[in-house]
């Protein structure tokens, strides 16, 4: 059954051997975990842990534990978090220099520290501003660009489709979506009813 859905994928010139993606996981998806995922599950694309865009721009060397790639790893997408369009654009450029195969912007994180910085799922509250961030990041890199979103920023607001349209217009290539509202954090089962389709 699974083989029906398993297929190679090419995104903005990046050829992936299949369309399985290992999700970004803070505290977990480091190089060692990605290597294990690669060996045992062979995902076409792996994600880093989320990386602070401002820390990356200010002192990339201090971010080495997030940036390290094993030579035998396949394509790795670097996930960035932040709010400032200029800093995110610059961080995307640095990440590209450090070997990123793709860049992702975290638009789904519900953790207090990230929300306090106006980042993570807070970005979904203002789709127009999010579009400006995406445009700035798009200018900085030619790599595949994605934004990882939720269905909406709050229980009473589901704007994933609006954001998907704006993001696509500004040059986003992929749209990983966590099928849940922020208030439901890691609720199971996933709510697939509001996932963007167009
Ligand atoms: C421990 C843990 C850490 C996570 N960290 C991140 C993260 O840094 N960035 C992100 O976009 N999503 C993060 N997520 C969400 C996952 O990427 C994924 O979207 C979520 O677990 C839903 O997938 P699942 O149903 O297969 O668990 C994390 C999830 C877990 C369980």
Based on the model shown, name its key terms:
TIM Barrel, two-stranded antiparallel ribbon, globular, alpha/beta, six-stranded parallel beta sheet, 8 helices, binds flavin mononucleotide
Question: Can you put this structure into words, describing what you see?
Answer:
Strand 5, helix 5 and strand 6 (102-106) form a beta-alpha-beta unit. The longest helix has 14 residues, at 127-140. The chain is α/β, with parallel strands linked by helices. It is built from eight helices and eight strands; from the N terminus they run H-E-E-E-H-E-H-H-E-H-E-H-H-E-H-E. The strands form two sheets. The chain has a six-stranded parallel β-sheet. It has a two-stranded antiparallel ribbon with strand order 1-2. The protein has one domain: Aldolase class I (TIM Barrel). The chain binds flavin mononucleotide. Residues 23-26, 28, 49-50, 79, 106, 108-109, 148, 178, 190 line the site of flavin mononucleotide.
CATH class: Alpha Beta
Q: How do the strands of the widest beta sheet line up side by side?
A: 3-4-5-6-7-8
What overall geometry do the principal axes of the alpha carbons give?
Answer: globular
Would you identify the CATH architecture? Alpha-Beta Barrel
**Ligand catalogue:** flavin mononucleotide
Low-confidence parts: none
CATH topology: TIM Barrel
Beta-strand content bin: 15-25%
- Give the helix/strand class: alpha/beta
**What is the share of helical residues?**
25-40%
CATH homologous superfamily annotation:
Aldolase class I
What is the total tally of β strands? Answer: 8
Structural domain count: 1
* Averaged pLDDT: 92
The radius of gyration computed from the alpha-carbon positions, rounded to a whole number of angstroms, is 16 Å
């Amino acid at each position: 059954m699974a083989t029906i859905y398993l297929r190679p994928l090419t995104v903005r010139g990046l050829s992936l051997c299949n369309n399985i993606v290992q999700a970004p996981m803070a505290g977990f998806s480091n190089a060692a975990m990605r290597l294990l995922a690669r060996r045992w599950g062979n995902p076409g694309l792996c994600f880093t842990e989320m990386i602070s865009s401002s820390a990356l721009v200010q002192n990339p060397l201090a971010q080495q534990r997030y940036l390290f790639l094993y030579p035998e790893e396949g394509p790795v997408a670097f996930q960035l978090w932040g709010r400032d369009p200029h800093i995110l654009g610059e961080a995307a450029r640095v990440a590209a220099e450090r070997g990123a195969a793709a860049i992702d912007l975290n638009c789904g994180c519900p953790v207090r520290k990230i929300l306090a910085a106006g980042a993570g799922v807070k970005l979904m509250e203002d789709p127009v501003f999010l579009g400006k961030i995406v445009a700035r990041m798009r200018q900085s890199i030619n790599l595949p660009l994605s934004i990882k979103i939720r269905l909406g920023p709050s229980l009473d607001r589901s704007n994933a489709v609006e954001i998907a349209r704006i993001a696509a217009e500004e040059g986003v290539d992929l749209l990983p979506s966590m099928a849940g509202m922020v208030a439901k954090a890691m609720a199971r089962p996933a709510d697939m009813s509001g996932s963007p389709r167009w």
